[in-house]
Amino acid sequence: MPEGQSQQDPKLQVEAARKAFEQEFERFAGFAEDSGTLRVLDLSSAEAQQRALADLRTRHLGKKSALAASKKMVGRVPADERAAFGQIVQQNDAEITGKIEHVEQILKSHLESARSEREAIDVTLPGRRPRRGHLHPITVVRERIEDIFVSLGYAIEDGREIETDFYNFDALNIPDNHPARAAQDTFYTADGFALRSQTSTVQIHAMQRRGAPLRMIAPGRVFRRDTPDPTHNPMFFQVEGLCVDRGISMAHLKGTVAEFLRRMFGAQTVTRFRPSYFPFTEPSAEFDFSCFKCGGAGCRICKNSGWIELGGSGMVHPNVLRGAGVDPEEFSGFAFGLGIDRMVALMYGLDDIRLLFENDIRFLEQFD
Ligand SMILES: [Zn+2]
Fold first, then answer.
1. What separation in Å is there between the alpha carbon of 347 and the centre of ligand 1?
2. Percentage of residues in the chain having pLDDT higher than 90
């Protein structure tokens, strides 16, 4: 038996341990007596109190606590005092455990309600409505064009934006010496691939993949080395159309373009074709339509001409059909293309198409 313990009265030792506990427990006593003390406690302070209480429990009820030591002393006190001493130890144990557990319970429920309060939604606060976006004007017009052609039985084809010389030029019957091939007109990658300068490339892919007969449109981005100005941008949107079947003539081309423009701009719209030249069509024609604003009388939009120039078209050159694996003896076809951004600029009265690509929210918000 160690010297110190034998010299001390075990009852005094228990009493000292109890006093030490009472002293330390004092700071928690308020929680047990008055819930008002708790109410002012924020979440993190309450959590700190909970940890402090757990430490207190270890110090006063743990294996190395004075109480644990006094339990070991029970066997060493004289036999006639043993029962009474044991009772004192038990009482102390029960009292300390009870007090700690009571406050533990109070803190625990306080924390639970504080946490759920923090997570709860205050329904009395005014709501913050998420701002709803809308489609870009180019997308709106592109989808309208797609809807019209889908209803005319055309498929929508998507294509790659980086092409080989074959698809961008050769297959489109663009000769080697054509200026479009020059580096000052077309963007090339370091590996010699071209950023497609027209969506006509998709025609070739589609004919190779699906063969004839075929009806398709291909909306998408194209790239040209233009210096940006109010009517030019190095990247812009085109839509290309292709119809290949037996017995397709220029009349089908004119009828289709005219019908498209009537559905786009109204039943009164008149279309006209002017002879032109493109390497991939023969014969070729540019098409204009009567001004949707003034109906042909002349205004700012049509520059007082009454007509709006829109795109190019023509009968697909036999070399193009042949190059894409379609027999020009059996099939013929027409193709047309137009600029979507240009159409958007016309429809919304924009003076500068660059506005469409700057993504300035103050500009785009006007198209909601
Ligand atoms: Zn006009």
1. 11
2. 41
Ligand 1 geometric centre to CA of 31 (Å): 83
Q: What is the pTM for the complete model shown?
A: 0.63
Mean pLDDT of all residues in the chain? 87
Residue 2, pLDDT above cutoff 60: no
Mind spelling out the 3-state secondary structure of the chain? Answer: CCHHHHHCCHHHHHHHHHHHHHHHHHHHHHHHHCHHHHHCCCHHHHHHHHHHHHHHHHHHHCCCCHHHHHHHHHHHCCHHHHHHHHHHHHHHHHHHHHHHHHHHHHHHHHHHHHHHHHHCCCCCCCCCCCCCCCCCHHHHHHHHHHHHHHHCCCEECCCCCEECHHHHCHHHCCCCCCHHHCCCCCCECCCCCEECCCCHHHHHHHHHHHCCCEEEEEEEEEECCCCCECCECCEEEEEEEEEEECCCCHHHHHHHHHHHHHHHHCCCCCEEEEEEEECCEEEEEEEEEECCCCCCCCCCCCCCCCEEEEEEEEEECHHHHHHCCCCCCCCEEEEEEEEHHHHHHHHCCCCCCCHHHHCCHHHHHHHC
Q: How far is the CA of 223 from the centre of ligand 1 (A)?
A: 29
pLDDT higher at 259 or 32 = 259
Residue 351 has pLDDT above 60, yes or no: yes
Rounded CA-CA distance 138/301 in Å is 19
In this predicted model, what pLDDT tens digit does every residue of 163-210 receive, in sequence order? Answer: 888 888 888 888 778 776 776 678 888 888 888 888 888 888 899 999
Compute the distance from residue 343 Cα to the ligand 1 centre, in Å: 14
**What's the pLDDT at 34?**
64
Q: How is residue 188 written in tokens? A: 């090339």
pLDDT in tens, 271-282: 999 999 988 999
Q: Which residues fall within 8 angstroms of residue 173, CB to CB, at 6 or more apart?
A: 279, 280, 317, 319, 320, 323
From the CA of 259, how far away is ligand 1's center (Å)?
Answer: 20
**Spacing, Cα 307 to ligand 1 middle (Å):** 7
Q: How far is the CA of 210 from the centre of ligand 1 (A)?
A: 41
